[in-house]
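User: Sequence recovery, please. Input:
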């Protein structure tokens, strides 16, 4: 039934999946309590050291040997195999099966059969603790973990968005562009950008999207409703705080034509920043620049140089981390930072050079 439901296209099964996930959480929680009630603390002390030795054998020998044997002939390299060999937490299946076996053994007169459940619960706690604590360090040690997660997934590939992405990439921040318009995606690729032509509202397309190093979503299409829907659908991929959208018409928020605020992502950039504003400024000749700040050329000096003819969009710290400007938390750039700005064509002459 499950195989048929997931592969058919005539029925909507999303509500069934959601109900099943909630039901599974409740059942597993209840089952762990029931099975855990069979464990005797006094018995835990009696079998503790043999159980710990058994745990070490599972972690250091059984799991690695089984993984490397089963992956013979695959395309995985040694580091990937080693990472898989370092992960095997035991859970409810082991607890349930061991309890069934223990009950069967007790029914045939094996008085020490209840030790089986105790040992298995010690193994469950041990494997969850060991693998949970060591997974991230092992991934970093094997160079399999993302070295950074502040990259941007930008939805929309219009001309000014592509130029913004190029400026961000020039600051060594990962950027991936997604759009449904093949011509715009082609232009983005020709500009040297990582671009993909997919629909982010397609669940299967989202699941197959490579997001190494990407930690923030920027919905910047010319449609508020599309931006809001994309941010909402991608909440499972990005934390709520990392879902941003560029408004198209702020006035719609106060009318019945707009989307209710709780369905939208975080407002991007400063108060009054809209898709139309950026597009018009870009069409009039404004450009996106990444400018390094120093003790001699501070943010105040930059602001004086350009007066009101620039908009601060983001700050890249000395360690390369990008922080976006938002209305609720305006940025305060410091010497040593690099600032991403939209700068107009009129510049006040100054003795300090501005890096691009």
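Assistant: Recovered sequence (356 residues):
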């Amino acid at each position: 039934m499950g195989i048929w439901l997931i592969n058919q296209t005539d029925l909507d099964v999303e509500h069934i999946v959601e109900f099943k996930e909630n039901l599974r959480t409740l059942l597993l929680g209840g089952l762990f309590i029931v099975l855990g009630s069979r464990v005797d603390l006094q018995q835990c002390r009696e079998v503790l050291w043999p159980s710990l030795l058994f745990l070490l054998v599972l972690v250091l020998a059984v799991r690695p040997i089984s993984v490397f044997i089963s992956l013979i002939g695959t395309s995985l390299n040694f580091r990937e195999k080693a990472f898989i060999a370092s992960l095997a937490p035991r859970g409810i299946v082991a607890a349930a099966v061991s309890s069934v076996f223990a009950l069967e053994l007790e029914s045939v007169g094996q008085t020490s059969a209840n030790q089986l459940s105790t040992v298995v619960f010690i193994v469950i706690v041990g494997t969850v603790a060991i693998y949970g604590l060591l997974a991230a360090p092992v991934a970093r040690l094997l160079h399999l973990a993302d070295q950074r997660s502040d990259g941007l997934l930008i939805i929309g590939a219009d001309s000014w968005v592509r130029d913004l992405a190029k400026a961000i990439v020039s600051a060594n921040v990962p950027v991936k562009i997604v759009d449904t318009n093949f011509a715009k995606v082609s232009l983005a690729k020709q500009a040297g950008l990582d671009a993909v032509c997919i629909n982010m509202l397609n669940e299967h397309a989202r699941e197959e999207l490579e997001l190494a190093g990407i930690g923030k979503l920027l919905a910047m299409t010319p449609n508020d409703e599309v931006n809001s829907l994309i941010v909402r659908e991608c909440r499972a991929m990005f934390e709520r705080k990392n879902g941003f959208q560029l408004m198209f018409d702020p006035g719609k928020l106060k009318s019945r034509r707009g989307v209710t605020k709780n369905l939208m992502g975080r407002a991007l950039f400063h108060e009054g920043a809209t898709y139309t504003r950026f597009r018009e400024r870009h069409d009039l000749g404004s450009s996106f620049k990444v400018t390094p700040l120093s003790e001699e050329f501070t943010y105040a000096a930059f602001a004086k140089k350009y007066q009101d003819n620039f908009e601060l969009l983001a700050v890249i710290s000395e360690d390369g981390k990008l922080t976006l400007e938002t209305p609720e938390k305006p940025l305060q750039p410091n010497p040593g930072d690099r600032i991403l700005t939209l700068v107009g064509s009129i510049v006040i002459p100054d003795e300090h050079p501005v890096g691009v």
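Residues 3 and 9 are 12 Å apart (CA to CA).
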